[in-house]
Design brief:
The structure holds two protein chains of two kinds. Chain A is mainly α. Chain A is built from ten helices and no strands. Chain B folds into two domains: 238 residues, 3-Layer(aba) Sandwich (Rossmann fold); 33 residues, no CATH class. Classes of the chains: A mainly alpha, B alpha/beta. Chain A: One of its GO terms (cellular component) is plasma membrane.
């Protein structure tokens, strides 16, 4: 604990770097995965191709990808873009399948009736399909967020800042407290991100909770009726 | 007036859902398309708002060939009510009713006021306006569906088995409500059902369909019952099982109406109809 207090400034600055490295992959990954997922949902041909490619992307070892980035992007070896692009690719790989499922899960009755009352394709996407895919998209985004925050620690191996530095440094010095601090810090960031996402979800999708509650009530009602 | 002129529909998989269909649906009356599944009744209905385009023939609304009209605009001008209400689960009752006016550019406060008035029309308590569809009973959802269908004050209202998924008690309530609304508003209603009793109750004109959209008989309910065209019609309306042949029996001093199967259909009322 005394070590933590003595180094609080450095830990805080590593935490900020960690957050700065985590946010872009999560956001960009999400924004790119949603349209890709929609394409996979909409067209049968693209579905197979897109989902397979995304599945394969995820099997590339992360460290190898980070190391290869400077060659692929023409960046300097210490450029944070290397890490950000790598993690964005992983975020997309994780998110596309969920996004596809999210759009698949939107009831066909609802989209058909939306068309029948006069939604054009574009409006139907923004006002009907996207919001109704929201709950599943959010669930996927929470997984991506947590996984990205944890993957950022890998950056330390290629000289990037972030709480991962406490792992490598603590390992070299054989100092458990420092490693533990890194773990706790990473977990805390992941939790804070998750809470923010859940709150955002409640604000943007107020109907989703009502919907689940109604379904649960209906289920208990049936169970009661059956047992009665 | 809606006119079907030699309309056929073959789906990409080769099924001929409708074959050379001709029919005129008079304005301001209710036409019921009734038939079993596979009779093409829903396909016929969905052709009117271009959810399905015919592969041959033409459909006219008054004098406009609808294939020349822009589908999205056409749909906004026609009320549509479907089974399981088809409401948007992420919008409140009032917003659901206001959906089409909002799409057509009506300002929000005006659309809302009108939505609340429509809730009165279809017999929904205004306190439900801020609920989500999942918080309503099946019957209430269906009423919201009807209110949404009426929201742009359309001349034409398409109803695709709207009361198919609610229990019999609520269904009969909703049917009576529709009869009442139609008396006030006099829309051109096209109603699809597989329930012959529902068809006879609601239809000014009833169209009995066989497989492939072939018309077995068109007429008023009385026409069809009095002069069934063939055995198919007889079977469909239940005349062959004696369901429509009623006779009167005396039971403890009252006149009881009994059908051909011996089932009690009701009591003969000597007074005025209730």
């Amino acid at each position: 604990m005394t070590w933590v207090l003595a180094n609080i400034e450095q830990i805080w600055s590593l935490t900020l770097d960690h957050i700065l490295l985590s946010v872009p992959p999560i956001l960009v990954g999400f924004l790119l995965a949603v349209p890709i997922g929609w394409l996979a949902h909409r067209y049968r041909v693209s579905r197979g191709v897109l989902l397979t490619v995304c599945g394969l992307l995820y099997t590339i070892p992360s460290l190898a990808l980070i190391v290869a980035m400077p060659t692929l992007l023409g960046t300097k070896i210490l450029n944070p873009a290397n890490l950000i692009v790598t993690l964005t690719i992983y975020a997309i790989a994780l998110m596309v399948r969920t996004a596809t499922d999210a759009f698949d899960a939107v009831s066909k009755d609802v989209t058909q009736s939306a068309t029948a009352v006069g939604f054009g394709g574009w409006r139907r996407f923004w006002q009907v399909e996207l919001p109704l895919a929201g709950p599943v998209l959010l669930a996927g985004l929470r997984v991506v967020s947590t996984s990205t925050v944890s993957l950022v620690t890998l950056g330390a191996l290629v000289g990037m800042s972030g709480l991962g530095y406490l792992f490598t440094n603590g390992y070299q010095r054989n100092f458990a407290t420092e490693i533990l601090t890194g773990i706790v810090g990473t977990v805390l960031i992941a939790i804070v991100f998750d809470v923010v996402l859940v709150i955002l979800g409640r604000m943007l999708l107020p109907w989703a909770r009502v919907d689940t509650a109604a379904r649960r009530n209906a289920k208990t009602a049936t169970t009661k009726a059956v047992t009665a | 007036m809606i006119t079907f002129d030699s309309v056929s529909k073959r789906f990409p998989d080769g099924t001929l859902a409708v074959d050379d269909f001709n029919l005129t649906l008079p304005s301001r009356t209710t036409t019921v398309l009734v038939g079993s599944s596979g009779s093409g009744k829903t396909t016929l209905l969905r052709m009117i708002n271009r959810m399905v385009d015919p592969t041959a023939g033409s459909i006219r609304i008054d004098d406009d060939d609808i294939s020349t009209l822009e589908p999205v605009k056409l749909r906004r001008s026609i009320g549509y009510v479907m089974q399981n209400s088809g409401l948007l689960p992420h919008r409140t009752v009032a917003d659901n009713i206001a959906t089409v006016p909002l799409l057509s550019g009506v300002k929000r406060p005006a659309a809302r006021t009108q939505a609340l008035e429509l809730m009165d029309t279809v017999g929904l308590d205004r306190s439900l306006a801020e609920r989500y569809p999942s918080q309503l009973s099946g019957g209430q959802q269906q009423r919201v569906g009807v209110a949404r269908g009426l929201a742009v004050n359309p001349n034409i209202l398409l109803m695709d088995e709207p009361f198919g998924a609610v229990d019999p008690l609520v269904r009969s309530e909703l049917q009576q409500e529709l009869v009442r609304i139609q008396k006030d508003l006099a829309k051109t209603i096209v109603f699809v059902t597989h329930d012959i009793d529902e068809a006879f109750l609601l239809g000014d004109q009833v169209v009995l369909l066989k497989t492939g959209g072939k018309i077995a008989q068109v007429g008023t309910p009385a026409d069809i019952l009095a002069n069934p065209a063939d055995d198919f019609v007889n079977t469909f309306v239940g005349a062959d099982r004696g369901r429509r042949a009623l006779r009167i029996e005396q039971v403890s001093g009252r006149q009881v109406v009994v059908d051909g199967t011996g089932r009690i259909a009701g009591i003969l009322n000597d007074g005025t109809p209730t």
